[in-house]
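STRUCTURE:
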């Protein structure tokens, strides 16, 4: 089951990458949203070693995990950064620059 999840996540990630590269020719919002959906699906399907879902030691799978989780980690980091900018210490709305 773990191998099937790895294969499905890898194929979904490849599909998202192909969709991103297809935006170079002609930009389309549907293609962009579909690529983000593919990256999110690959992130959710992948059996992460950090959360204890993958037990085998394999350098190739560790590198593949970093590659698959990278786009979503960047997005999560961006949302946390934006959240910190708009968070106030007194509970109100404030922009801290």
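SEQUENCE:
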């Amino acid at each position: 089951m773990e191998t099937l999840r790895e294969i499905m996540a890898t194929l979904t990630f490849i599909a998202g990458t192909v969709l991103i590269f297809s935006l170079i020719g002609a930009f389309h919002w549907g293609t962009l949203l579909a690529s983000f959906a593919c990256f999110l699906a690959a992130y959710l399907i992948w059996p992460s070693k950090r959360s204890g879902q993958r037990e085998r030691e394999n350098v190739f799978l560790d590198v593949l995990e970093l590659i698959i989780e990278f786009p979503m980690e960047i997005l999560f980091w961006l949302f946390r950064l934006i959240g910190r900018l708009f968070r106030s210490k007194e509970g109100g709305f404030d922009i801290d620059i």
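REMARK: The chain has a mean pLDDT of 84.
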